[in-house]
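Researcher: We plan to redesign the surface later, but first we want a full-length starting point. Tokens attached.
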């Protein structure tokens, strides 16, 4: 088999990978060829050995069975199966909820367990928890637990349900931009409109995302679908090949309204949802791949496990706070095919301006309570680009009024087009999004970073250290909640390792070990930190100025801790410590700290009992 460059690199590295890790994720973009890699790994390293392949949906089982049975003896587990595992077959395919007795028998015998769409693994959930526990306690010492996903992150604040509790590390196999250069994927071209009459501000997001029961009526009430069909009709006419599109909707009511408008435009379209029977769904998707159905409108079924390389337009009608959902859905259009040189991404949900282009997404193994809150600002990513002082990028929002009475509302980068005219309506009626939305009203990480590295060494050089170094106990005992956040950051900067890390898992192992150390110090000294609703960077900045929020005692004590680090470490080491310290301070602030802490990496009762 002719392997792609990244696949061959992983094959070559695999012996060293499994020598270091037995639970790991292989991360590669949608369409990169993860299933092919899995089959090749089995063929080369697990010939005649026992393999379990797990996924969370039946349609994915069908696809995996088709891909693997060409080279391997495969058995797809059914709900009614009984008896010993691996009789007359080597590869067992299953969801985590099927024939649990057979699966329980298979885990201790398995040499490899592969989990497809591994971001779905819930270490504290009903299905995967038992599997993970069984692998850890009964599995072969030489066996591997391998995850495959394009988006290794779970959208949860539950500290007992973090992805890092299932896997030791992430092996970053390939990124989208490299695969575009190699021709494996095609370039995404974004057309993003800000739908000004879509009101999301009043929707309760305590669940971690916009609930569809409130989101769907807001979408239908707005002009979002009108923007989508207007954009679509324009973009399909520009393609050199036949348009084949996938439309991602919030729920069935939005999907049905969208389907009606598409069909009224004379475009052949169909709809698939989770309720569509599998045989009917597969028939419709086959017609879509053949080009007999141009527009496939979906609810919750195309974001994972669906592959149509001919799809050249993605239409996103699902505002979300989930970076995973955004990345997975757009990635479905990036597969290469003959005559296809790009994929048009029409986003009327403000997901592009919230998360950024999918090829720029960054992932994290750990999240904290309300980590999704930053995405409530639907211009979150645009604000971050403006705040990068080394290479700031300005984005414009076209406010030109169209003949139908709506605004153009295209978002585009300044200096991309002649005279900064809108590429859609060819007028200049744009405003600077950053200034208009007042995205710079609160301190951001880039500004704090520059402030910290400028101020700390200067202030520290002028301090009388004999005074401030001895006042730590007093500073903590008298600190108000805002001052506690500042002191946690300073302590984290002092204590966390400056060593470079080679993986996401190693990064978090170091950060969480320091967080546990800080929590130990706090509970030992009976210092409680109340959960915050937001992590306010201005508290840290204020401490560097002895401002209104952080008193002089706390400010100077904290600076004395940080300044000592600058004296004993190089710039690169301080940079690594700073990045971890910000994350630690944010987590302690958002999770809180008390003698009741019971976290995977710190149990307050056990810590106190050990003193």
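Model: Full-length starting sequence:
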């Amino acid at each position: 088999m002719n392997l792609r460059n990244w696949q061959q690199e992983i094959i070559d590295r695999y012996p060293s990978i499994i020598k270091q890790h037995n639970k790991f994720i292989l991360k590669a973009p949608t369409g990169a060829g993860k299933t092919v890699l899995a089959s090749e790994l089995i063929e080369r390293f697990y010939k005649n050995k026992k393999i379990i392949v797990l996924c969370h949906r039946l349609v994915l089982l069908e696809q995996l069975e088709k891909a693997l049975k060409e080279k391997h003896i495969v058995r797809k587990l059914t709900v009614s199966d009984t008896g010993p595992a691996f009789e007359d077959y080597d590869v067992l395919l299953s969801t985590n909820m099927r024939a649990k007795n057979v699966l329980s028998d298979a885990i201790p015998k398995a040499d490899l367990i592969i989990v497809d769409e591994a971001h779905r693994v819930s270490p504290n959930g009903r299905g995967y928890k038992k599997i993970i526990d069984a692998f850890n306690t009964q599995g072969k010492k030489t066996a591997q637990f391998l995850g495959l996903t394009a988006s290794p992150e779970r959208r949860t604040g539950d500290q007992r349900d973090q992805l890092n509790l299932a896997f030791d590390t992430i092996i970053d196999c390939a990124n989208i931009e490299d695969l575009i250069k190699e021709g494996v994927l095609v370039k995404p071209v974004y057309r993003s409109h800000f739908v000004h009459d879509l009101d999301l501000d009043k929707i309760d997001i305590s669940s971690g995302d916009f609930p569809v029961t409130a989101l769907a009526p807001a979408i239908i009430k707005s002009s979002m679908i009108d923007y989508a069909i207007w954009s679509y009709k324009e973009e399909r006419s520009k393609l050199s090949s036949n348009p084949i599109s996938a439309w991602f909707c919030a729920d069935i009511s939005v999907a049905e309204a969208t389907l009606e408008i598409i069909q009224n435009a004379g475009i052949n379209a169909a709809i698939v949802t989770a309720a569509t029977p599998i045989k009917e769904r597969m028939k419709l998707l086959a017609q879509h791949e053949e080009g007999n159905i141009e527009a496939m409108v979906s609810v919750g079924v195309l974001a994972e496990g669906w592959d149509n390389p001919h799809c050249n337009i993605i239409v996103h009608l699902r505002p979300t706070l989930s970076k995973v959902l955004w990345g997975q859905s757009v990635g479905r259009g990036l597969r290469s095919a003959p005559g296809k040189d790009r994929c048009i991404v029409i986003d009327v949900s403000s997901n592009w301006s919230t998360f950024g282009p999918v090829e720029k997404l960054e992932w994290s193994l750990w999240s904290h309570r309300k980590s999704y809150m930053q995405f409530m600002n639907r211009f979150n990513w645009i604000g971050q680009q403006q705040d990068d002082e080394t290479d700031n990028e300005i984005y414009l929002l076209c406010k030109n009024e169209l003949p139908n009475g709506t605004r153009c509302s295209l978002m585009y980068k300044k200096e991309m087009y002649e005279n900064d005219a809108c590429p859609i309506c060819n007028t200049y009626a744009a405003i600077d999004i950053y200034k208009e939305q007042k995205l710079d009203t609160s301190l951001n990480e880039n500004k704090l970073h520059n402030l910290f590295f400028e101020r700390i060494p200067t202030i520290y050089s002028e301090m009388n250290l004999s005074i401030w170094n001895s006042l730590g106990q007093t500073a903590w005992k008298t600190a108000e909640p805002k001052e506690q956040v500042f002191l946690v950051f300073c302590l984290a900067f002092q204590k966390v390792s400056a060593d470079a890390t080679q993986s996401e898992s190693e990064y978090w192992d170091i950060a969480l070990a320091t967080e546990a150390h800080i929590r130990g110090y706090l509970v030992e000294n009976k210092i409680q930190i109340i959960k915050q609703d937001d992590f306010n960077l201005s508290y840290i900045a204020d401490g560097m100025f002895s401002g209104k929020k952080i008193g002089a005692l706390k400010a100077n004590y904290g600076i004395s801790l940080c300044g000592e680090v600058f004296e004993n470490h190089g710039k690169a080491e301080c940079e690594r410590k700073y990045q971890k310290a910000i994350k630690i301070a944010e987590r302690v602030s958002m999770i809180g700290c008390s003698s009741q802490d019971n976290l995977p990496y710190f149990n307050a009762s056990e810590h106190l009992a050990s003193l």
